[in-house]
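Changelog note: in this version the structure field was regenerated for every chain. One regenerated record is shown below for reference.
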Amino acid sequence: MDKIVVKNLCFKYKENKEETLSDINLMFDNRSTAIIGQNGAGKTTFVKLLKGLLKQNSGEIIVCGKDTKDSTAAELAKYIGLVFQNPNDQIFKSKVIDEVMFGPLNIGMSSETARKNSVEALKILGLDNLIDENPYDLGLSERKLITIASIVAMDTDIIIFDEPTIAQDFAGKEKIKRLIKELRNKGKTVLTIIHDMDFVAEVFERTIVFNKGRVILDGNTKDVYSNEEILKKAYLELPHVTQLCRQLGYNETFLTVDDFVEFYKNN
């Protein structure tokens, strides 16, 4: 079942002469999906429209059966959660647990369920030892993870991450990778806007390429990264492993080191 259906979507900011998004037609099921493209391609505008933070000029967006044009962002919050790119735009409480519980409480969860979900989300991200800390006393990496936990705790059917790997070291990325896979296994629809091509290759099943407000590629991630010429036109690079294997003369598209090692062992 498609949790998000987008038909003939067009959007233009009042101050712009040209449309930011033109004739977007997409459907989202349970596959984890990365939305990639250069800055200005329309990615952030698109997810703000999904979340109800903006309203389209024309076309239709249906989220979990709700028409976003007839729904407020607050009403849609029960179905779709968005983690902002900059955690400082999201955090406003003086205690980690209060920050993470705010979203669940705001959509009508009981205090008991909100706390349980919040503690579980913090545990998955290795932050349960910081429950009573002030978020602003923590580093950028930890604040980003806190904002992720605060949306995960809301237990929405759809979760959107805006640049989830910002400020993360290897350990932080591994935590987010495990979280996304766990959410996927629970039947959640996970979307991300991201510039980290290696992370996309390792984690996401489907990849959509935006360029100048239009969708120019959409498919499983391996197939998308096999379209090198189209990606070049969108000013996007291949994952590092894919680039290296191409330079070594392999025509096969490898998304991870493990993919290449397995291929090498069997050939």
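Spot check on this record: The chain is about 40% helix and 20% strand. Strands lie at 4-11, 21-28, 33-36, 58-63, 66-67, 80-83, 158-162, 189-193, 206-211, 214-220.
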